[in-house]
Amino acid sequence: MFSNYKPTWMVDAIYKVTPEQLQKHGIKAVLTDLDNTLIAWNNPDGTEELRHWLESMRQANIPVIVVSNNNSERVERALKNFDLAYVARALKPLASGINRACKQLNVDKGSIVMIGDQIMTDVKAANSAGIRSILVRPVIETDSWKTQFNRFLERKIMKHLLNKHPEMKWKGEI
Predict the structure, then answer these.
(1) How far lies 7's CA from each of 43, 80, 142, 161, in Å?
(2) Backbone phi, then psi, for 158, in 5-degree steps?
(3) Bridge-based pairing state of the strands 132-136 and 64-67
């Protein structure tokens, strides 16, 4: 019933996903959510850890595109210091935003992964688009008011998924 919400992998944080891990799984490009995945939703400046992670992806020639449900102004403001491509108003959990990002990459969908902190939007959209997903823990424990309802539903879905798929565990890598 909830198989559309099952992530391919569950990793503690986006910063633990390395180019070597991605390459081992044939992944050549990364799509990522913005708020509470790359940056804290209430701190658009990011961290030094984020800068190091993005640099490691650049050095490995792994493109990163942000796929966010936020409007262009919000995403552009948050990414101004990171030189990242993005798709705003992605309409996740629908696949349309992910499909737009995939077209920008010119890479086979089997070589792309979506990383996000929500199964209701990020993982569902990835599964709908036919790409793999990495669910990460949120950067911070608080959410904007827009996300709080999703988190409530997410807890129920995760409980079901974890009962049905005991292999689903938080790990330090993919």
Answers:
(1) 26, 29, 22, 10
(2) -60, -40
(3) unpaired
Residue-wise pLDDT tens digits, 106-156: 899 999 999 999 998 999 999 999 999 999 998 866 555 566 667 677 888
Q: Is residue 131 part of a domain?
A: yes
Which residues of the chain, if any, have pLDDT below 70? 1, 41-44, 140-149, 151
φ, ψ of residue 135 to 5 degrees: the values are -85, 130
Q: How far apart are alpha carbons 162 and 141 in whole angstroms?
A: 21
131: domain CATH number?
A: 3.40.50.1000
Rounded-to-integer distance, Cα 92 and Cα 87, Å: 11
Q: Residue 90 in contact with residue 126, Cβ under 8 Å? A: no
Residue type (1 letter), 137 = R
Cα–Cα dist 124/76, whole Å: 24
Q: How far apart are CA 17 and CA 174, in angstroms?
A: 7
In a domain, 115, yes or no: yes
Give domain status of residue 129, yes or no: yes
Residue 27 domain-assigned (yes or no): yes
CA-wise closest residue to 86 among 102, 104, 67, 70? 67
Take residue 27 and report the two structure tokens written for it: 């992944």
The residue range of the domain holding 126 is 3-164
Q: pTM of the prediction?
A: 0.89
